[in-house]
Amino acid sequence: MRKIILSVLAVIVVAAIIVTGSVISRGGGASSGSINVYNWGEYIDQSVLDDFEEQTGIKVNYTTYASNEEMYSKIVSGAASYDVIIPSEYMLSKMIDEGLIAELDFDNIPNYQYIGEEYRGLSFDPEEKYSVPYTWGTVVIVYNTKYVDEEDVADESLELLWNEKYAGKILMFDNPRDAFALALTRGGYSMNTTDPAQWNEAAEMLMEQKPLVQAYVMDQVFDKMISEEAYIAPYYAGDAITMMDENENLAAYVPVEGANQFVDAMCVLSSSQHKKEAEQFINFMCETDIAVRNAEEVCYAIPHTAAFEELDEETREDTMVYPPAEVLEKCEVFVNLPPETMLLQSDLWIRLKTTYY
After folding, report:
1. Is beta strand 30-31 parallel, antiparallel or unpaired with respect to 23-24?
2. pTM for the model
């Protein structure tokens, strides 16, 4: 039924273009021009971008990044110009502090009303000025049931990532924040610790693990796990579900020791020359039917209350997507660490990546 409705809307929109030479957006007002959207890989339904362009007349130049750090480096280097970005909470906090994020005009984002109260006023944007939550989720351990012995995953522990039995078949995050978070959690520490001794201990754990690691990856994890080139990898829950859909031998769990719980949010760069159009895009992504379609495509948990109610029951009750409270209680949200801790993290990461065995 929805496909029929969209087809009718498309005809109406085309007619509007012919008659008036402009398109009236859902948010109201004639629009034109283009915006540059910078997002994580495998993190949007391409068809909603097509619909946005068709319904507003605004062209979307869409590019992707593999980590918050990659995105941040490209923006601060001035290598490219973007309007909308979708960082995770700790990076958003850092960019707000550095004046890189614009305050939003929520008059242009009326669909913000659908964002659940529990996802508003979070630590990275306590006054709700700069961002609109997009998705949330947790880090999980993905493994191949054909090659990983059942007794090695029975306790659903982080220790699987350090199991010598699977040397050469283990993947690891290719970004320091996620990699160190796993090691810190394994050591019984907060992933937001500022204690240098705990960071150094975590670095030793990662150094101990390195001979077992086939590769440090981000989006490459999809091909390697689906093709069974690798057997074990930590990654984000929504992407894990995508991999599991492609290979029935894959399974996943949230580590019993705990994991990162992340919130990714849509925001506009302060350097944007198309702020109104960017806000129009954010509002469009918060349309209930659009949020539903996007959630069904990317397989991540959504903060959109009306869209959540329209998801099928199986999705709403999927504990990989929406973990129960007792699992989330063990999870921790990243915060923006002080500069001296970030410098230590950077130094330890460089040492790890440049040490050869």
Report:
1. antiparallel
2. 0.86
